[in-house]
Amino acid sequence: MSVNFGSKRVVVGAHYGLRDWLAQRITAGLMALFTLLVLVQLAWGSGPIGYDKWAGIFSSQWMKALTFAIIVAMAYHVWVGVRDIWMDYIKPVGVRLGLQIFTMVWLVSCTGWAIQVLWRL
Amino acid sequence: MTETAPKRPEFRNISALTDLPTYRLPPAGWVSILHRVSGALMFLLLPFIIWMFDMSVSSEISFAKFKYAFNVGLGFVPGWFMKLVALALIWAYLHHLIAGIRHLYMDVQHAVSKEFGRSSALVTLGLSIALTLVLGAKLFGLY
Hints:
The complex is a heterodimer.
Chain A: H1 17-43, H2 51-57, H3 61-89, H4 93-120
Helix pairs in contact in A: 1-3, 3-4
Chain B: H1 27-44, H2 46-58, H3 60-71, E1 73-74, E2 77-78, H4 79-109, H5 114-139
Antiparallel strand pairs in B: 1-2
Helix pairs in contact in B: 1-4, 1-5, 2-3, 3-4, 4-5
């Protein structure tokens, strides 16, 4: 077997196999259920869907906490997915690392913004 | 240290511009690549999505601005273009969701057969496009 450790290590950026595979599916399931929950709350009761109804969905503390969890799940999900895209198409290690750093900064920034919106409400 | 593994043959004659467009993908192939495209699109438009969440939920005033941005426009961007971007996101979300459910179903059921792969791919494509058309018609005020 060829040497693939030390200075000969293959730099792939992942090698977390099962953990990320499973996390991708669990976070996806959570987001799908959350979508359903929001849709049910939108359809609940009568009257037009205006500001009061829409903002009301996210006004309770438990919904904020749950939405926060979903935002974190989304960030993880997107990280795995986008990282896979870079690993598939971008071969130069330096460029790939740069794009992965960009992805992290992009996701953490967006997550922070979304959390601020949530608890400012 | 020397590499002992024999060198494997490499084929680097695939051109993304001249060869890839001539490839004829089966339905499952289309679902697969569109799953990736829709995911990448939502990733790139994530700030826009959070902007929409911010505007729509923060206050009555920001909600009114949110509506104005789509009905009339935002700065130099016309309202119809905002709606078009929103429609692209609607499609991306629907396709990603339905293709994802297909993935989960296949994982749980071990439903890996050529026939199921094809038929479920066609359902995924049909359902996501149909729902996009229905919601798009609503978005552009056709009903």
